[in-house]
Amino acid sequence: MKDFIDHYYSSVFSATSRLTQLSDRKELETLTEEVLADLWLHREAFDTESRKGIFIYKTILYHVFTYLKRKGDEERISFLHKTLLINPELYRRLEDN
Q1: How many Cβ atoms sit within 10 Å of the Cβ of residue 23?
Q2: How large is the average pLDDT for residues 5-27?
Q3: Is 51 exposed, middle or buried (CB count within 10 Å of its CB: 0-12, 13-18, 19+)?
Q4: CA dist., res. 58 & res. 68, Å (int)
Q5: How many domains does the chain have?
Q6: The predicted structure's pLDDT at residue 87
Q7: Comparing 50 with 25, which gets the higher pLDDT?
Q8: Cα distance between residue 2 and residue 54, in whole Å
Q9: How far apart (Å, rounded) are the C-alpha atoms in residues 89 and 91?
Q10: Residue 36, helix vs strand vs coil
Q11: Which residues span the domain enclosing 39?
Q12: Relative to the CA of 52, which of 5, 15, 36, 81 has its CA 20 to 30 Å away?
């Protein structure tokens, strides 16, 4: 697991930071750890995925939108929806896929 975290931590942290625009490093670390834990929990599906980057990105988006909803940041959700041209409802928890 340590190798997995070492390999993906910085890219997940960076993407999470850009998407959320959080300045609180502790919250970013927590959100990053949640994404990595979700990926690790579903590593069998992750390992068989041919497009790992897309798999990671979908997982990040799910966690970012969930976080923003929990915080009530509708403005940021709307901005991301318009900027990324995505429907956040398509990015569900990995168990739902």
Answers
A1: 8
A2: 96
A3: exposed
A4: 15
A5: 1
A6: 65
A7: 25
A8: 22
A9: 5
A10: helix
A11: 2-96
A12: 81
Tell me the per-residue pLDDT of 82-93, one tens digit each, with 9 for 90 and over.
Answer: 888 766 666 655
pLDDT at 47 over 90: no
pTM of the complete model beyond 0.70: yes
Is 50 in a helix, a strand, or coil?
Answer: coil
What gap in Å lies between CA 71 and CA 86, rounded to an integer?
Answer: 20
d(CA 43, CA 36): 10
Residue 85 φ/ψ region, left for φ over 0, alpha for ψ in the -120 to 50 degree band, beta for the rest? left
Q: Write the Ramachandran bin of 93: left for phi over 0, alpha for psi from -120 to 50, otherwise beta.
A: beta
| 43-50 contacts, C-beta under 8 A, 24 or more apart | 43/4, 45/94, 45/97
CB atoms under 10 Å from CB of 91, counted, come to 19
Cβ neighbours of residue 94 closer than 8 Å, sequence gap 6 or more:
38, 41, 42, 45, 59, 62
